[in-house]
Structures are given as C-alpha cells and as structure tokens.
Amino acid sequence: MYGYSHQQGNTAERNTLSKMSEDKSAARQRYRVKRDVIKRWREEEGRSLAWLSRRIGIKPDTLHQQIRGTCGLSLGVALALEKATGIPVQDLVEEVDSSEKDTAKAS
Fold it and tell me: Which of 3, 63, 66, 81 has the most neighbouring CB atoms within 10 Å?
C-alpha cells in the first residue's frame, strides 16, 4: 500500500523530521497532515477521526484542524500518527504554503 524502499524511506523520514524539528514554532505553522492519506487509511481500516484522535491523545477537533492546516502540527503529533497508522511520517505530512494557509483560514 505505502510501498517504498526501506533505505529511501529512512532517508526521507530523517529529512522530514529534521526539517520539522529545526524550528518547532515555524514547523507548527508550515506543516499539516495529508488529507488524502489519512482519509484513505481511515477508510481501509474502518476507523473514525474520533478513534484516531483518541489513539494519539488529542481532541478530534484539533486533529481535524491539523488535517485542514488551520492549526499547527507538532512533531509529537506527527510521530504519534505515524505510530498509530503505520504510515511513515514523510508520507503523512506536507508543507503548507502561506497562500494556501490563508485560504484555509478564510473557509
């Protein structure tokens, strides 16, 4: 399903984690959970957003906002999502450009 070479995955994951941890406050503003990846995983696993949020220890509304990009994504939540879903963090997280972030806040 999320096929990638183990070695490439480790390098990509290290790069993603390194970028997110460089400046934690900036990372919260620049990253969000990839909607399509989480949606597909939830459909395949038959899990609700509420179940996933309980599993990682945050409120469902907070997880929803992090997926939409209207609430900052912490490195800790990204790692908890990776652990709960089994999907590598580099496949779960994407950068949000400033124009897209402004559009998400307006909606």
Answer: 81
Q: According to the model, what pLDDT value does residue 29 have?
A: 61
State the DSSP string of 37-61: HHHHHHHHHT--HHHHHHHHTS-HH
Q: What Å distances lie between residue 63 and 3, 6, 9, 76, CA to CA? A: 25, 28, 25, 13
Secondary structure letter of residue 74 according to DSSP: P
Q: What is the CA radius of gyration of the chain?
A: 13
Architecture of domain 25-97: Orthogonal Bundle (1.10)
Please tell me the number of Cα atoms within 13 Å of 17 on its side-chain side. 14
Return all residues near 34 (Cβ < 8 A) that are at least 6 apart: 91, 92, 93, 94
Contact 66/73 with Cβ under 8 angstroms?
Answer: yes
Q: Averaged in consecutive runs of 10 residues, what is the pLDDT profile of the chain (107 residues)? A: 45 64 57 91 96 95 88 88 94 77 49
